[in-house]
Amino acid sequence: MWFKNLCVFQLQDDWQLTAGALEALLTKHPLLPCSGLNLHSQGFVAPREGGALVESADRHLLIALGLEDKLIPRSALDEQVRQHAAEYERRHGLAPGRKLRRELREQALAELAPRALARRRTVRAWIDPAARRLVVDTASPGAAEKLATALREVLESLPLIRPQPATAVAVRLTSWLAAGRAPANFTLGDEVELRGGKPETPRVRCANQPLTAPMVRRLLQDGLTVVKLSLHWRERAALTLDQTLQLRRLRPLETTPAAADTTDPAQRFDADLRLMIGDLGQLIKDLGTALAVSL
Fold it and tell me: How far from each other are the two terminal CA atoms of the chain, in whole angstroms?
């Protein structure tokens, strides 16, 4: 049940909606299968199988955006266009021009779309009204923006911003690595990714070794900057923090006994949700303190 990635938005206004009121709004925007020539579809789905569109615990809200894409292999599309172009040339004695080839491509898409396989994904989000925070479980900034945009359309207005630390996250991460220690409540992990000052400079990744090793020190002395750093938080969770303030590969370091006290799926989900809210809320707060930014 734990979120594996955290993309944090700040709510600019107080959150006023109850779980029931939000549920009523999301019901009007469900995920529908792709139909006709539409290769993409999105809408809200239940965060857990068989559940409601909004799960709640102590005013915290959990929602999920479903994304469906029709998968048409590029090779299949190109072959369909090639066949149409060859048939046109056979009939008219000349190859189709650029404009006609675009039309043939649209025709090929129309023919292949009804038979294309559909892939569904779910992006979950947690709304913390007290902290005025929206947290999206995704490693993709694009997917996070899709959920934020979809929620904004449902609510007609939802002022959101991504937190912007006064000191760049990459500078903070580099200083932590140079010091050989992380701020309070965090310790260094065993992976780091660095890059040079020029865009064409290849990135260097060090993994499964102490980050205080001489080789890592030399990379810092050569002027490389940390863009990703693995951390442990309070010996309870491991994560990777990158320069965009994105938390990735988040996982608990220990099994939470309270979550295993029941075999009932609904009760287990509720217990996991409450534990996640408590732990990740504190993690985000500690990270905000470490980076000197409001999260």
Answer: 22
Q: Tell me which amino acid residue 125 is.
A: A
Q: For the whole model, what pTM was predicted?
A: 0.84
Tell me what pLDDT residue 268 has.
Answer: 87
Which is nearest to 150 in space by CA: 132, 133, 134?
Answer: 134
Q: What is the pLDDT of residue 148?
A: 96
Question: Each residue of 155-168: pLDDT tens digit?
Answer: 998 999 999 999 99
pLDDT by residue (tens digit) across 269-278? 888 899 999 9
Report the C-alpha gap between 271 and 252 in whole angstroms: 15
Nearest C-alpha neighbor of 109 from the set 138, 71, 144: 71
What is the predicted pLDDT for the residue at 261? 60
Backbone φ and ψ for 184, nearest 5 degrees, come out as -50, 140
Contact 293, 77 (CB under 8 A): no
Beta-carbon contacts of residue 256 (< 8 Å; ≥ 6 apart): 272, 275
